[in-house]
Each structure stands twice: as C-alpha cells, then as structure tokens.
Write a structure and sequence with these properties.
This protein starts with 6 loop residues before the first strand and ends with a helix. By secondary structure, the protein is mainly α. The model has no long low-confidence stretch (mean pLDDT about 90). The chain folds into three domains: about 70 residues, no CATH class; about 80 residues, FAD/NAD(P)-binding domain; about 100 residues, no CATH class. The longest helix is centred in the last third of the chain and has 33 residues. Helices cover about 65% and strands about 10% of the residues. The strands form two sheets. A three-stranded antiparallel beta sheet has the order 1-2-3, with no helix packed on it. It has a two-stranded antiparallel sheet with strand order 4-5. It binds flavin-adenine dinucleotide. The site of flavin-adenine dinucleotide has 10 residues, from helix 5 and helix 6.
Length: about 260
C-alpha cells in the first residue's frame, strides 16, 4: 500500500483502518459493534469474516499474524465524555480528555485539549487572572464547543465507515470544493473549518447546516435554470471561452448530483 497515508476499508456499519508508523509499518484497527467481535470466536470464523469483508488485507497482514493479533488483543469500548461545568469553585478545572474524551475519528482530541489551554489563557486575560471569574466563564464558554467536537468526532466515524461509499456524499464533497474555489473566504468545507481554523466547533456545525441548506437550494435552482442558461451562454463565442469549462464542470456536477439523489 502507498506509504504515509491513512488507509480505510469502509464497510457500512464497521470499518478497518491502517495508520502509517514512522518505521513504515502499519497499525491496523478494526472498529465494529461489539456483538460482531463476540461472534468471531474461532480462527475459522475470523478468516471467513475477512475473506468476505477485507480479502486484500489477509495477504497484506498474513493469516498467522491476523489470527495471532486478533485473539491476543481484546476489543475495547470507545468512550465519549460530555459534562458540565468543568470547574469546582475557584480551585479546580478539567481540561482535555477528562472534560471531553471523544472517539478518535476527527483527530481532534489532542488539538481540542490544546485549544482548551489557549481559550483558558484568553479568558484569564479578560478577567485579570481572577479565578473566581475565570473558571465559571471558561466552563460556560467552552462547553458548547467541547460537546460539538464530541458529536463531530462521532459523525466522522459514520462518514469514514459508511458515507464515503455514497455517490451523493462524494458529489457533495465536489460541490464543497467547487464553491470553496469560487468563494474561498465564504465557503469553507466542514473538515477544513474544524481541522485548520480556530472557528468554534459549535459554529462549524451551524455553518455546515447553513451550507447544506444552500447546496440543497443551489442544486434545485441550477438543475432547472443553470443548465438552460449554460446552453444560451455557450452560444456566445467570447463568453464561451471564459465560461465553457466553468459551465461544463457545473453542469456535470448538477447532473450527477440529481442522478445520485434520484437513485
Ligand atoms: C487511537 C487514537 C488516536 C488519536 N488520534 C489523535 C489525533 O490524530 N489527533 C489528536 O489531536 N488527538 C488524537 N487522539 C486523542 C489524544 O490522544 C487525546 O485527546 C490526548 O492524549 C488527551 O490528552 P490529555 O492530557 O487530556 O489526557 P491523557 O493523555 O489521557 O493524559 C492523562 C494523564 O493523566 C494520568 N493520570 C490519570 N489518572 C491519574 C491520577 N489519579 N494521578 C496521576 N495521574 C493520572 C494518565 O496516566 C495520563 O498520563 C487519539 C486518541 C486515540 C485513542
């Protein structure tokens, strides 16, 4: 497999991922509902399951190693924590996983913990380091964001294990890329907002909802009017030169989105 990539085998209700290590090995993890783990209780059952779901992985991992590792590692539950407030009086405060442990699928657990420190520092500045004011203000300010990233991390599990197989979902990603290219400051895809900006997590969710709404409307409007205008515009030579590739891209995106939505 290509090095330095996260590889995913999405299978609807479950998935396997391979994370690259610095020594060019891989750490492979199987995520699935506990009853499925319990049902794979013999080497034969495990191999049958892999032959059906991850046939290419058997050769990559090796039969012996697969059986050895599977039966020597206990399946563990994944935990999310939501709690409020994070402080006790003016003396104690929970930061990081203790306040908001999340499933690991957004790669934000550590980032969020570090951002906790930045936010706390900002609030300490606002209240001249008066902990009686700082700690309640921190709890109030941080809670909607911590809960939002816990939800986003779980959402990304569904995206990774299932949605990436959906044509409609992939087309929506193309819409995001397209709108981001023409409106780079206004239209920022959810993953980019969450991962590469200081946008508050709960506002990322609100903006994604707004974007979903707009894309839904755009697909309908462009589907009817845009294609007709495209045909008219492409008749004009000068405009054609400027707009042909733009319109072709747009028309194909709209057509594919409508076709996928109809399916
Ligand atoms: C598989 C996986 C992948 C991840 N990938 C990413 C990623 O790509 N990006 C990212 O940002 N985050 C990622 N994370 C999340 C990240 O690892 C955690 O969010 C981060 O380590 C939390 O840091 P923390 O200091 O809050 O808690 P911890 O790292 O859990 O530190 C708490 C410490 O407190 C100690 N402790 C506990 N009880 C006591 C006690 N009573 N007395 C003294 N010490 C105690 C523990 O031993 C531990 O050392 C991932 C997590 C997992 C499990």
């Amino acid at each position: 497999m290509p090095k330095n990539y996260l590889h995913i085998w999405p299978r609807g209700k479950y998935m396997m991922i391979a994370l690259p290590n610095q020594d060019k090995t891989w750490t492979v993890t199987l995520f699935m509902p506990h009853p499925i783990f319990l049902s794979l209780d013999t080497p034969g059952a495990l191999l049958d399951f892999f032959k059906k779901n991850y046939p290419d992985a058997i050769a990559l991992i090796g039969k012996e190693k697969l059986i050895h590792d599977y039966f020597n590692n206990k399946a563990l539950p994944m935990i999310s924590v939501k709690c409020s407030p994070y402080h006790v009086g003016s003396t104690s405060l929970l930061l990081g996983d203790a306040a908001h442990a999340m499933v690991p699928f957004y790669g934000q657990g550590m980032n969020c913990g570090m951002e906790d420190c930045v936010v706390l520092d900002e609030i300490m500045d606002q209240h001249d380091d008066d902990l009686e004011k700082v700690l309640p203000a921190y709890s109030k300010h941080r809670n909607p964001d911590a809960e939002a990233i816990v939800d986003l991390a779980m959402y990304n599990y569904i995206e990774m294990r299932d949605l990436v197989n959906s044509r409609l979902f992939l087309l929506r990603k193309k819409w995001d890329d397209f709108l981001n290219r023409i409106l780079p400051k206004k239209w920022i895809p959810l993953y980019t907002m969450v991962t590469f900006s200081r946008e508050r997590y709960h506002l990322c969710i609100a903006k994604k909802k707004w974007q979903d709404n707009i894309v839904g409307k755009l697909v309908k409007v462009f589907g009817v009017v845009g294609v007709a205008i495209g045909v008219l515009f492409t008749k004009t030579e000068a405009v054609h030169a400027l707009s042909a590739s733009f319109l072709a891209h747009l028309n194909s995106l709209v057509g594919k989105t409508l076709a996928a939505a109809a399916r």
